[in-house]
Amino acid sequence: MYKLYVQLILLIFIGCLLYAGNTIRSGDRFKVEVFNHEELSGDFVVNDDGYLYMPLIDTIYVKGLNFNIAREIILKKYSEYLKSPNIIIVPIFRISILGEINTPGIYNISGIESVSEIVAMAGGLTDKANPASAKLLRRGKVIAKFNIYKTTTDELARKNVTISPQDVIIISRRFMPTLQEWSVIVSSALSLATLLTLIISLNR
């Protein structure tokens, strides 16, 4: 139980940290845990009109609000119906993973995942990927370069770098050919050498 509480507190802290300075937009998702009320818990999405529909308290307009402000509004609403409610609200935000990844696209994360876990969500690396040369982009600018398998989110945080909503992770391609590509290159070279030898012998 203690471990669960520590994890929940960590999620709240990360959520507040990641959304600091970021406003809520349509399509943003939130995980809500209402203790002893499983029917009120779940993942909820801000609709196109900026409203967040939640059981019991109906709809709340949250578009354009800071996460901490929206969280306080939600807690206050639940307090009108529940006595001393114990509620955890965590943002699930979207990032993009592109480049040499098996399933590039947009993914929802909570911010507690490791870099390698995020890569696994996207189907893992292709055989042409360079795991030592990944880039983290924010608003079109590279803010960090790192090794996927040797860098944790904690290490990024120590460098004052956090994975934030709308960030893009790009997996670069290796310059060196793969083993399969080498075999094709060698095979082609041998075929060319054989052809040249044949041409030379015919011209003698």
Kindly describe this structure.
This protein has two domains: 91 residues, wza like domain (wza like fold); 80 residues, Outer membrane lipoprotein wza fold like, CATH 3.10.560.10. The radius of gyration is 25 Å and the shape is elongated. It contains five helices and nine strands. Strand 5 and strand 6 form a beta hairpin. The strands form two sheets. Strands 1, 2, 5, 6, 7, 8 and 9 form a seven-stranded mixed sheet that branches. The N terminus is likely disordered. Helices cover 33% and strands 28% of the residues. With 204 residues, the protein is α+β, with helices and mostly antiparallel strands. GO terms for molecular function: polysaccharide transmembrane transporter activity. Keywords: Membrane, Signal, Transmembrane, Transmembrane helix.
Structural topology:
Blueprint: H1 2-19, E1 29-34, E2 42-45, E3 51-54, E4 58-61, H2 67-79, E5 87-99, E6 105-109, H3 115-121, E7 129-138, E8 141-146, H4 153-158, E9 168-173, H5 179-202
Parallel strand pairs: 5-9
Antiparallel strand pairs: 1-2, 1-5, 3-4, 5-6, 7-8, 7-9
Radius of gyration: 25 Å
Order of helices and strands: HEEEEHEEHEEHEH
Question: Main β-sheet: number of strands, strand sense, barrel status?
Answer: 7 strands, mixed
Q: Supply the number of helical segments.
A: 5
What is the assigned CATH homologous superfamily of the largest domain? Answer: wza like domain
- Proportion of residues in helical segments: 25-40%
Per CATH, the class of the largest domain reads: Alpha Beta
Q: Which band does the percent of strand residues land in?
A: 25-35%
Q: Would you give the CATH topology of the largest domain?
A: wza like fold
Number of E-type strands:
9
Shape: elongated
